[in-house]
Amino acid sequence: MKLPVYLYGHPVLRKTAEPLEAGYPDLKQLVDDMFAAMYESEGVGLAAPQIGKSIRLVVIDADPVAESFPECAGRKFALINPEIEILDGDTVSRPEGCLSLPGISENVPRVEHIRLRWLDTDMQAHEEEISGYLARIVQHECDHLEGKVFIDHISAIRRQLIRRKLNDIVTGKVAVDYPVRYAPTARRR
């Protein structure tokens, strides 16, 4: 099934996602469908709120950026009910984009070292320390589970400078080459 990516302005992107319980119907199929949507959109991560489901589920395949960020090589996983613990308070700013905010990229400060706890699709617990760009991807996707998007981490001045682009997304005035769901208020041209 082709899952559309919900765009900025859709209310589901601002909700705090609910924990995913054991026995969630067709979980493995949902994970497969999310990976397919992520690949079609040419992303490296996708959170369930981005496909309209307010549950604590994230898929990541960071391998496409491994040439620039070796810590991402072979890193493909589904995260159920992920929890992040900050291990290093120093932040590094790097450009980020998001499938839900097409055409926008901003420098976002994030910590470089985290401890991640999560369940896999068999509901088995995992814990791992993660650093570098992979830690950034995980933090970005987990933000979606808290009702946040990457522009929430930029200055008010930067948000003001991209206000028109944000408005174009909210009102449906952006063209995207992957399946999307616009905000309910969008009036597509």
Polypeptide structure, described:
The two termini are 26 Å apart. Helices cover 22% and strands 26% of the residues. It is an alpha+beta fold and 189 residues long. The protein is globular and about 45 Å long. The strands form 3 sheets. A 5-stranded antiparallel beta sheet has the order 2-3-4-7-8. A two-stranded parallel sheet has the order 1-9. The chain has a single domain, classed as Peptide deformylase (Peptide Deformylase), CATH 3.90.45. Strand 7 and strand 8 form a beta hairpin.
The value of Rg in angstroms is: 16 Å
Roughly how much helix do the residues carry, as a percent range? 10-25%
Broad shape: globular
| Uncertain ranges | none
Assembly form of the protein: single chain
Mean pLDDT comes to 95
Structural class: alpha+beta
Number of helices: 4
How many structural units, i.e. domains?
1
Strands, total number: 9
CATH topology: Peptide Deformylase
Residue fraction in strands: 25-35%
**What is the CATH first-level class name?**
Alpha Beta
Write out the strand line-up for the largest beta sheet, numbering strands in chain order.
Answer: 2-3-4-7-8
CATH architecture: Alpha-Beta Complex
Order of helices and strands: EHEEEEEEEHHHE
- Sheet with the most strands? 5 strands, antiparallel
The CATH superfamily is known as Peptide deformylase
Gap from first CA to last CA: 26 Å
